[in-house]
Fold:
Amino acid sequence: MPPRRRSHAPVARDVLPVVPTSDRPPPFQTFLDEHRGAVLAFLRAAVGPHDADDCFQETFIAALRAYPRLRGADNLRGWVLRIAQRKAIDRHRQLARQPRPTAEVPEDVAVEGPDGVPEIWRAVRALPPKQRTAVAHRFVCDLPYREIGALIGCSEAAARQNVRAGLDNMREELDR
Amino acid sequence: MTDDNGRLLRSAALAEGEGEAEASDAATRLLARASAEGLLDVAYAGVDSPFGRLLVAATPRGLVRIDYLLDGSETEALERLAARISPRLLEAPGEVDHVRRELDEYFAGQRRDFDLALDWRLTAGFSRRVLRATARVGYGHTSTYAELARRAGSSRAHRAAGNALHHNPLPIVVPCHRVLRTGGGLGGYAGGLSVKERLLRLEGAL
Structure:
């Protein structure tokens, strides 16, 4: 009698097909833990402490929406900072369209501080968007000029020029 | 010195040492919003148990994974979940708090059945049938690989049944520890044989 064939027995298939992990982003929590500090600091610099949290939420919600489709992202920091700078620019446009009533934010009180720190927010807010973004990337996130250029869409030399001009304008604003 | 303003901006933006706490608060608010907007595909939390640390994960459908973190490899466990379900995976203890509570009660001997919605998506086909049959083996009772293979529709497939149980994504809640070898041998257990033995003792089945 020939041996019984066993090939009809079902095989346990617990593991569903898995797409190769090499070009997939890490779990969102890992990504968030790694970049949340830099994003919040960038946004504090770019839109001020008052609006930074809102922009932070907008940034990471947008990142979360796009995340499952993200492939081959070898520069997640650059990716999320690009979203953050877009949100910061949106926020400035919003503020320009509808300035806050002076009663709500007493400007004179808000900008005066014992160590001069709040003054800095006023100086940054007064910058043109590209300079503001470049200065924040440079001093808050320590990005090299090449990367800043890639983020704001200009050359390395132009990024350096934007930072320098931004600092000059801030000094002028603060010396006034 | 213009760079002084850059440094001043830096220290103001980094919130002078409170930046990490603020970023942590902001991340907590993000979690609430992600959940409200349906962007949280997998919520997870680490849960301490008498059998070591467990990783518990849930989708909007229900509990999807309980992982014995035997070598403490939470990172790998999370990466597996991200690859198999979705990378939109966030630590959200509040979303799995009811699971932790029921597990605590079970470990304390105060709960015999789990009242949890289950998401079976990490199993398919024959494996899923075996595990669904396993879910019906009651507290304090035992069954065998051969019996479960039969109930899953293929009495000769006790080896495949054993394999399905070994890869049970929902141990404890889908009680694969109640399944023994024909003849009474303990068989195997993904959480370690000593854990299987202790679970059976807890239930008074040994």
Notes: Residues 28-175 of chain A form a domain with the Butyryl-CoA Dehydrogenase, subunit A; domain 3 fold (CATH 1.20.140.160).
